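From the thread on structure requests for the teaching lab: each student submitted one protein with a one-line request. Submission from student K.M.:

"Model Chemotaxis protein CheA from Ramlibacter lithotrophicus, tokens only."
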Amino acid sequence: MTGTGASFERKLSEIFAAEAAEHVQRMQACLLELEGGAAGGDAARSVQLLFRATHSLKGATRAVGRRDVETMCHAMETLLVALQRGRLEWSRALGDVLYDAAGAIQRHVARAPDAAAAGELAALLPRLEQFGAAGRTSGAESGVRAAPPAAAAAPLARPEPAQPAGAERAAPETVRIAAEHLERLLHDVEELVAVKLGIDRRTQSAAGARTSLATLQAAAGAAPGAQAAALADHGRQLRAVAAAAERDRRELEVAVAALLANVKKALLLPAASLMPFLVATVRELARSQARDVQLRMEGDHVQLDRRLLQELREPLVHLLRNAIAHGIEPADVRARHGKPPKGQLTVTLAPRSGGRVVVTVADDGGGIETARLAQAARDAGMAVPAQPQRGDLLELVFGSGVSTAEQLTHVAGRGEGLAIVRDTVERLGGTVAVDSAAGRGTAFTMDLPLSLATLRAVEVRASGQSYLVPTVQVDRCVRFRPGELGPVGTRLTAPIGDRRVPVVSLSALLGSTGAPVVGAGTISCLVLRSGERFTAVAVDQVCSEQEVLSKPVGRGLTKSPIVSGAALAASGLTLPILNAAELVRLATADGQPGAAPMVLAAAERRAPRTILLAEDSITSRTLLKNVLELAGYEVELAADGVQALARLRAGRFDAVVSDIEMPNLDGIGLTRAIRADAALAGLPVILVTSLASREDRERGAEAGASAYIAKSSFDQGNLLQAIAELT
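Reply posted by the TA:
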């Protein structure tokens, strides 16, 4: 086959995979309606739509030569015709085999035919043919009958008003675009937000210069006429430039906002697109646990960012798994408690103001036994209050290693599922809470942003550094007078409403020795909330609440649980985003009365050491700089090896921390140049890089690197320990 022919075949296969996925999604939606108890005309309509989707898929398979899928679709059509003609009755067993067939097709249309795919599809054919044989021999007329053609074709939505004769409704024009192209476009548009922020700062600078010039003009009133005239002329020019800059800024702000909103809208999907995946998950889990479970979704029309829907899959699976394994009882137990034999699982989505959505997963099971939960938490090494409130006990379900399962199975027993839920939700800038009633069920509620591109955050300063805290995790900002603070046990506390909450220094939590700045006799605090726990975190300054642009960060550089990501702030700087829930956990952990060091404490105090940091990525450079400065080092920056070498020869440094992959001169070349320079040869060089192979490490050692740290396994403690040992 020629290169052109092979390229066409690949493109055709990609188109087929996308089309087949749409057909399978329609098939699963129709099967869900039938399983949900659709009857009469609704059932007939579901069967007809299911038949159409199956028939369309069969036709598409011929174009790409997928005879295995075509044979499967043909067998499914046979059953659906029998259903339509009343020769076959709908049953759960029939629904199972049709759903299994649709799932098998879904798994295999996206890849080239192979023995495994053919084997799975072939194994399902006898089950389909068994039902087909029953349909051919049965004379029963009690099955699902097809409605008359007009009724069967009637849409579910309310009919449109009658149109004038000859008028036609034009269907909205659509075009198929790969999601990755839209996401790339969204990324480019998001970068325009950074440009807009820069123009905002320039406009503010122009306004400030205009004010300064006006002050000079007022002070120069007695200047000679020529000078005064020149100054006035400069003032007019500056005012004109400032006014034009402000007009341009407003126009750009409107244009960028509209463009960003439209591109985001193109990436929105209805929550209903998750339903086939969730139904398949519940079916499999319910089968494995011998439970009869019905899943419902409310608010499935809510439109969500496609990336958020993808991120939600894992926490939703863990919540559904938890409900089936721990919540919904077996049918005989439910009968003894007067419940229907089929357990109910409900996923509800509700948009709320501020660009957020609330997702609730609720079951009607037995609820959480708090006594067993408390014991499981103790067994996992967690501290349980002596006289806890019910809300405090329920929060224990999110602890790592906490499980009330009596035995370990493939579904439950590890105690990590709900911890993963909380970690994921908080990483997305949201919160999760739990409520439970004995005998009536449990509900988990996730409060999430509708979009992952931007978020609202509070900028604070501590020990000379700036940080961001997601607004949704901040309960309030307050100032305390020193007299309002008082000890409770070994902790310093402050009054918040009708309770006293721990007060800790953000500098202490981050491992710095600096104390919070006390201004005008008060201490500025952010009150952070995680579930039912509150902590007042003392900072030097609460700067502002603002919308910030999320920036991608390498996974290695966010392994610290305190840092959940990075964002571009209004100042134009990329700042770390702090995980408020982790700060609260550290602040309230036993044995941590206000300080949880994130760096290795030095055995003795000494003068600050100066580190040269060479890194071409501005995001990685910013985060590494913060890590080093929090540890007490002075840091100078270089964007490549050439800049680094020039700075080394012009100044005095105690160590070099360098990336390898940089323009102009990479980290290996920089290390060799340092070792070849008599004045620099003894300087410690630590390579921090994404290159982690044995060959890369050997190249670093041969060049003369003092230490080699891979970003894939990056831990700031290892970096700081290496610097401490080498300097």
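TA comment: The two ends are 62 Å apart (CA to CA). The first strand starts at residue 268 and ends at 270.
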